[in-house]
Amino acid sequence: MPGSHNVGHVTSPFIARPELLDADPLTATGRPVRWGVVATGAIAATVTADLALLPDAVLHAVSSRRADRAAEFAERFGFATSYSDTDERLGYQALFADPDVEAVYVATPHAQHAEVVAAALRAGKAVLCEKPLTINARETQQLVDLAREHDVFLMEAVWTRFLPSFQRALEIATSGEIGTVQWVGAEIGFRARQDPASRLWGRADGGGALLDLAVYPLLWAWGTLGLPEAVTALGTLNAEGVDAQNALTLIYASGAQAQITTSLLARSPNTVIVAGSEGWVRAQGPDAVYRPTRLDVEVSKGEVRTEEFELVGSGYVHELREVTRCLQQGLTESPVMPLEHSLATMRLLDGVRAQLGVVYPNDER
Ligand SMILES: NC(=O)c1ccc[n+]([C@@H]2O[C@H](COP(=O)([O-])OP(=O)(O)OC[C@H]3O[C@@H](n4cnc5c(N)ncnc54)[C@H](OP(=O)(O)O)[C@@H]3O)[C@@H](O)[C@H]2O)c1
């Protein structure tokens, strides 16, 4: 009928089965899983603190490039063992050789993910690896092939996907309540110190805003509109050829669009808006783009409905519950965060980097 809206219910590619996500993440789901942690940096500490909250997680070993850091980290979180070596490879190889380690959490900079994860998979260890899984799609494909060849679990740590608040936002956005989703705007930015030694700026470490941050705003577009037909990208590169900030427009066959920006120059509010033909959903909270604690929904002008969410731990407990549950059930892949989604992400990011002109040493190997 001319002029009518197509307010159909659509299915988000990310909506998990409720029984996977509704349960308390701190309730044990089976036998204990024995963990090893690779690296002792910022996120390793935050995620390990959440891991320690799981009653069916055993903090068995940690490895670092430096013995003192490994020992301190072990002491701080209560690991039974720590490994290190002046040759950084030997530290994690010792951890992977430990038969008491069943699962490893890899929290090195992106450029090391491919090598470290490959070594873990070859040793038969289940792997949860920080995002982005690798620097490019070729490396991700190699890890996926290796995981399947060795029949071991592998998952990229896209933790936001397991948060009840994110899942609820997708449910609202695709339920028809706000009509048909036509536009998504999502951004993330912080001012990264101009330190040439920082992993965020170095080409060798896979620095730049895109690889570090784009996964989060992309989740909102992908989760509500699917993967785009095309992406156009503009970026500002630093002298080393690493992107300091960038702006992406995602274009869909339906005519829908999404705008995504990431920045290492600007401290932004991390805004997310999913706008439909009849209304909108806005993620709220200080870290709304990756850890929303409130959702605002407006369908009638000026009448905003809100839904509040409590954070458990720092929010990582949900992905850690998922890995634990998968291992307890003998799964080699998470049905919520499948490897095909990591591959699709890396293919999209490869395409964006080609437009921006950002090339890393890993691309040339
Ligand atoms: N999920 C999230 O919310 C989140 C948040 C932040 C970062 N991340 C991801 O986590 C990863 C690490 O980020 P981060 O912020 O924790 O970085 P970070 O603070 O620099 O820590 C990285 C750690 O990796 C080890 N490392 C550093 N350089 C290395 C190298 N060349 N080879 C091997 N190991 C090296 C170091 O540990 P040792 O000295 O002990 O060896 C270092 O402390 C990145 O891929 C990032 O995208 C995820």
UniProtKB/TrEMBL annotation:
One of its GO terms (molecular function) is oxidoreductase activity. Residues 33-155 form the Gfo/Idh/MocA-like oxidoreductase N-terminal domain. It comes from the Bacteria. InterPro entries: Gfo/Idh/MocA-like_OxRdtase_N, Gfo/Idh/MocA_domain, GFO_IDH_MocA-like_dom, NAD(P)-bd_dom_sf. SUPFAM superfamilies: Glyceraldehyde-3-phosphate dehydrogenase-like, C-terminal domain (SSF55347), NAD(P)-binding Rossmann-fold domains (SSF51735). It comes from Modestobacter italicus (strain DSM 44449 / CECT 9708 / BC 501). Pfam families: GFO_IDH_MocA (PF01408), GFO_IDH_MocA_C3 (PF22725). Keywords: Oxidoreductase. PANTHER family: OXIDOREDUCTASES, TRANS-1,2-DIHYDROBENZENE-1,2-DIOL DEHYDROGENASE. This is Oxidoreductase. Belongs to the Gfo/Idh/MocA family.
